[in-house]
Structures are given as C-alpha cells and as structure tokens.
Design brief:
The complex is a heterodimer.
Chain A: H1 3-19, H2 21-41, H3 45-56, H4 59-77, H5 80-84, H6 91-120, H7 129-150, H8 157-174, H9 186-194, H10 196-209, H11 215-238
Helix pairs in contact in A: 1-6, 2-3, 2-4, 2-6, 3-10, 4-7, 4-8, 6-7, 6-11, 7-10, 7-11, 10-11
Chain B: H1 7-14, E1 25-34, E2 38-48, E3 53-57, H2 64-71, E4 79-84, E5 87-88, E6 98-101, H3 113-124, H4 128-141, H5 157-169, E7 175-179, H6 187-202, E8 206-211, E9 222-227, E10 230-235, H7 237-243, H8 249-261
Parallel strand pairs in B: 3-8, 3-9, 6-7, 7-8
Antiparallel strand pairs in B: 1-2, 1-4, 4-5, 9-10
Classes of the chains: A mainly alpha, B alpha/beta.
Chain lengths: ~240, ~260
Amino acid sequence: MSPRKTLATARRVLMQLHHDKRTLGLLFVVPPVLITVLKYVFQSDAMFDHLAPMLLGIFPMILMFLVTSIATLRERTNGTLERLMTMPMGKLDFILGYAIAFALVALVQALIATGVMLGLLRVTVLGGTLPTIVGAVLAALLGTALGLFVSAFAATEFQAVQFMPAFIFPQLLVCGLFVARDQMAWALQWLADVFPLTYSVDAMKQVTAHAGWTATLTRDLFVVLAFTLVALLLGSLTIRRQE
Amino acid sequence: MPVTPDHTQVARLRSGIVERMETAVSVRHVSVEFEGVFKALDDVSLELPPGKITGFIGPSGAGKTTLIRVLAGRQKVTNGTASVFGLPAGSGALRGQFSYMTQSLSVYPDLTVGENLSYFARMVGLKRGQLTDAVAHVLQQVDLKPHAAQVVGSLSGGQKQRVSLGVALLGSPELLFLDEPTVGLDPVLREQLWRIFRDLAKAGKTVIISSHVMDEADRCDDLVLIRGGKVLAHASPHDFCVQTHSKTVEDGFIKLVEASAA
C-alpha cells in the first residue's frame, strides 16, 4: 500500500464524479430538499426540530451507500478491478481511495445540508454546528463503508440497489426514529443495539437535546467510526487478488 | 513440485534482464476446475519463449481466458504449477513486470483517455517525472493523441479498444497478456494493432495474445491451439501446417478436432 496510489485513486474517483454532474448535483441537493419538504409536512416546529437533525444522520448515509455500492460494483463488472489487481497496487489503496474521495463528498454534502437546516430552516440544536456536521459526515462515511462491503455480494446493479432496502431499512425501522427504542420489544431493542445506524441517529439526538459535547455523543460517534472501519476492512477482504 | 521464488530471480527481474531467460512462461500439469465439476483447463503443460508473439488460439469457451488469468495471477489452479519469469504466477514481485488487457474494456468510460492513462500509469508505479512522457508516448503508440481529452464512453469501439491496449503498454512491461485485443475491429485497425505487437516483440517483449479468429494465427511466432481446456498443439504456424498437412492453420485445427473426435 502507498499513500501516492491511495490518493491517486481518491482523485480518480472524484474526477469520475466531476464528469457526472447530475450525480454530484443529486448528492448535494437531495438531502437539504428532503429536509425542507419535511418542515412543511409538520405543522409544529417542535416536531420538526426534533426530527430534522436525525434525518441528517440518515439521508446522507443512504445516498452514499447507494452511490458507493454501485460504483464499486461497476469496478468489478467492467474489468477495471480485475486489471488493477494485477498491478503493483494494494487492496487498501483501492478501498481507502474510495473512502477518502467519498469522505470529501460527504463533507461538502454535510456542510450544505447542515447549512440549510440551521441557517435557512432555523432548526435549533443545543449542541451547536460542529457536532452536527461531524455526525452527518460520519454517518455518510458509514454509508460509504457499508456500500463498499455489500457490493461484493451483488452480482448485478439490480441486486445492489435492492441491498438498500435489505440492509438499511431494517436499521431505519428500529433506530428510534419512529418509536423510542425502550418502547420496542426486547428482540428489536437488541437488533437496534447491534445496528450502526442506531448510533448515528442517537448522536444526532444528543446534539439536538444537549448543550455541549456529551459523553454519549462521543461514544455514539466512536461506535459509528468503529463500524465504518470494520466495514472497510471487511470490504478489503472481499477483494481478492486470486480467485 | 512447487516453484519457489528465489532472490536471484527477483533481482534479475528488477534489473530488467529477463530476456536472457530461456522461458518466459512455464505451465506444468495445470488444471482449473470450477465448482469442482467443470474443467476450464485440463492438465495443461507449456513452455513459452520470451521475446516472441505467442497466440492462444481456439474457439470461445476453450479455456484461453482462464489460462491467461492463471498466468496473470488472478485465477488459482486446482492442480499443477504455473510460473512467469521463474516466479510462481501471482507473486507480488511480478506485478509491474507484466500487463493484462482483459477481454472486457477495463478502463473507466466516464474519464477521458488522458485521465485513464495517467491514473493507470500511477498504479503501474511510474513516478511523477516519468508520467507525462509515458502517457504521451502511449498516446502516440495507439494513435489517440487527438482524442486525449475525450471521454472514453464517447469513443468508437475501436478507439476504446486502443485505450485499453494503451493502458497495457504503460511502463513498458516485459510481458503483455492481451485477451482478444483485436476482437470486432476492422481489418485496417487490426493491422495497426498487429504492427504494435510486432514492434513490441522486436524490442524483446513477450506478447501473449488470445484469439478465436483463426486467421490471426498466421501472424504469431508461436501457436498454442486450445480446445475444451486442453492444448491440442503447440508449434510455429509453419510447422503446424506441415505437421497436419494443411494449407492454413484453420484447416489443420479442424483436422485435429475431427481426428480427436473419431
């Protein structure tokens, strides 16, 4: 593995996005638009203030999951990964290259979405802007890492797209967005405990409800980061030099 | 017996003195089975000379791609051993010494020709100072200079094929595996590519090409005829025609297949 090759790969992924303006536009525009729509769905500001930050931990994650899983699947099906694996390049160069490129995209995405939410829609988060952005970026990175990992199990783009409802929706249902976790059946609570999205959403709840940086927030963010790193590692294991 | 890498071989490789070796590629009793049933390769043994164009010729599904993937280190063998420049196929030390043009396009259709070449040049290990020259040289070789700033997806089929070949030429590897590099190309373009292959061999490079088109066989220095995962014959085109009392390689191939079916 070499930093030069990792960065060159990150640059290449960003160049591909740069050529695909529509995808880039969707990545940056969809989360703030959805959050804005939500504002008008709810009559009460209190309800919206409570939900909007949580969605900031969910929408970017889903988008990045989709984009990454399709992007890596394409590398597998169009032969570029086959070719790269015969070159003096590390598997981690490939995985980290993707992670870095999408982390940058996630950062811009989080800045825009947070800006719209806090600036235009006037949502009040007691925790402040910084933890909101950190939470959103880490959630998006988690989406990238999970996308990289599960794309190994998809043989076609049809399958890859369906991994979204299969992998993300269960996490969404039990993460505490719809019903508080302690009011769910024990089996569902247990599931929520092992799903990464729970921690991402919980981090956003912390940011909303507490001033300053709480210990729970730190724990949540670390758990999300740990899941991300494990998913990246598992992702690099699914890439094989020799089949 | 497994071939173990030894340090003198690695050193020799790194210093680029590979042309002095007698064999570029050695395959001994290699079988590849998929799901334990289908035999893509069935007890294949081969010694291929360096500095020559060797053609893996046979119908599609014969095992040509599997054999190339074994040599490029992408496919594990079920039995037997395969080595390249004296090292086991798939060794880390071999990466960068050979290139592999896969049958599918294996370049990024959403990047320009130039961006593709620069990216792969970095992956091959070219340093920043060498990069611009290497890319310019390859663009000239595959005659794509006017299209350098064009997105690959917008090029014609033949141009895309040349981008893919261009990537395989980056860094002047000692050995090139080209899987069906001329498939679907018009005769003029095919001629152009063969001129490149010829030049590479003249410069001492080993070129291994697969094709299911028999008339390409006559252009190779060395022929390996493959069918049903087995090597039917290994000879120069001339010797093969003499041995099978045939005018063309295609006639000889058909005779061999009929004889083995009888």
